[in-house]
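Q: How would the structure tokens look for this protein?
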Amino acid sequence: MPAFKLERDVFFVGFMGAGKTSVARRVARMCALVSVDVDAYLERRAGKTVKDIFAQSGEAGFRALESEVLKALAEGEPRLVSCGGGIVARPENRELLRAEGFVVYLKVSVDEALRRIGDTASRPLLKDIGNARKIQEERERLYEEVADIGIDTTGKQVAGIACEVKAALLKEGVLWQPQK
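A: Here is the predicted structure in token form.
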């Protein structure tokens, strides 16, 4: 079976624990595509963990690096890109997401995210549940603003969500399979 092709980047957005990275990787395996996680790419590029960058440079410093990485990724060949939960915080990122790709918003509640993540040590913004709810509420409209499609992930497994995403990408013409 020949590999699938993407017309443009597919960006996965949503709150922490929505499954952005897991779903992007699963779709990539299903379709023989490349997937990149913005946070992992950023960590390799900076030589530090997200947690360390937050501790040393604060959220503003992290967001600046995140914007650089997003721009760099958008310049390459089309791929599946799982974004950090706060990527939508900066207007320039929202503009880039809309202009350069197809945006899949994976919806998740804070409670569901906490159940999925468990240990919040690597998630500095999830340590305070009240603050996490406030952040999720503030970002929800931004996710909606950039989204081409939204998929509720509550109670669903990664494989099922990946199948929904693949079907939506095929339907929208973002994903296609060349004929031999």
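The chain has one domain: 5-170.

DSSP finds seven helices and seven strands in the chain.

Upvote if useful.
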